[in-house]
Design a protein that fits this description.
Number of domains: 1
Family: Belongs to the aldo/keto reductase family.
Pfam family, one: Aldo_ket_red
GO molecular function, one term: oxidoreductase activity, acting on the CH-OH group of donors, NAD or NADP as acceptor
CATH class: Alpha Beta
Strand order of the largest sheet: 3-4-5-6-7-8-9-10
InterPro entries: AKR (IPR020471), Aldo/ket_reductase_CS (IPR018170), NAD(P)_OxRdtase_dom_sf (IPR036812), NADP_OxRdtase_dom (IPR023210)
CATH architecture: Alpha-Beta Barrel
Protein name: Glyoxal reductase
């Protein structure tokens, strides 16, 4: 698997394992351990997913069974910043650590900007956690250019990541260009649009051409755009398939054809309107 080097020198896998909308429970804990067994080293969760405890159980089981060391893993969570103060954000991080059962996280994100710029105080708390050596890197999620511009006027630590909805129907060229200019790595959530992308005729044609699944075509598209991607699946065979995207290359023409599917279609909330309600 390929890695990217973040702006603080930390390496992060290009393909990780997402757990959005997977409830707490033994099934999730086992799925996380299985994902690690299959080769995943990056696991992405969030406070609002309400599954950090099960994710942590799966991670700790993999470590305890000698499948991997903690140092080999890259664990991400996010703070749900609905009206959080600076102090409450610090407490939220400690709560996530306790639930996951680890001494530190590799990445901690502000989950949404909201519509009232509350994220400034939240991010300042993340900076303290980072300066104190409690987390290896910090970043943001769902930030548009104007959110990033406002943040960077106040920030002392440049975010390493902006995790956004990204796929051929929502290419977010302006955000990606701004992040590239500032040295902020873009990461895609919901890269498969909850599976709806897999029915696209072009994607199916490319899958047939390369002998790959439609999901692998989309994930390869992400990788070739230098975007970190975190697909979700509970099926072990698909876990393996989602990692097998480094043995073929889409042509420039094919990448352009996929880019041309862009029509601004979202499968999640619009950051300009979403305010945690």
């Amino acid at each position: 698997m390929g890695n990217v080097t973040l702006n603080n020198g930390l390496e992060m896998p290009l393909v990780g394992y997402g757990v959005f909308r997977v409830p707490e429970g033994d099934d999730l804990a086992e799925a996380v351990k299985t994902a690690i067994t299959k080769g995943y080293r990056s696991i992405d969760t969030a406070q609002v997913y309400r599954n950090e405890e099960s994710v942590g159980r799966g991670i700790r089981a993999a470590i305890e069974e000698g499948l991997v060391t903690r140092e080999e893993l890259f664990i991400t969570s996010k703070v749900w910043n609905d009206a959080l103060s600076y102090e409450e954000t610090l407490a939220a991080y400690e709560s996530s650590l306790e639930k996951i059962g680890l001494d530190y996280l590799d990445l901690y994100l502000v989950h949404w900007p909201g519509i009232d710029d509350n994220y400034i105080d939240v991010y300042k708390a993340l900076e303290k956690i980072y300066r104190d050596g409690r987390v290896r890197s910090i970043g943001v999620s769902n930030f548009h250019v104007h959110h990033l511009e406002t943040l960077l006027k106040e920030a002392t630590v440049i975010p390493v990541i902006n995790q956004i909805e990204f796929h051929p129907h929502l290419t977010q060229k302006e955000v990606r260009a701004y992040c590239e200019d500032k040295g902020i790595q873009v990461e895609a959530w919901s890269p498969l649009m909850n599976g709806s992308l897999l029915e696209e005729a072009l994607i199916q044609e490319l899958a047939a051409k390369y002998g790959k699944t439609p999901a692998q075509i989309v994930l390869r598209y992400d990788v070739q755009h230098h975007v970190v991607t975190i697909p979700k699946t509970m099926t072990p065979t698909r876990m393996v398939e989602n990692l097998e995207v480094f043995d073929f290359v889409l042509t420039e023409e094919e990448m352009a054809q996929l880019d041309a599917l862009n029509d601004g279609r979202r499968c999640g909330p619009d950051p300009e309107k979403f305010n945690f309600k």
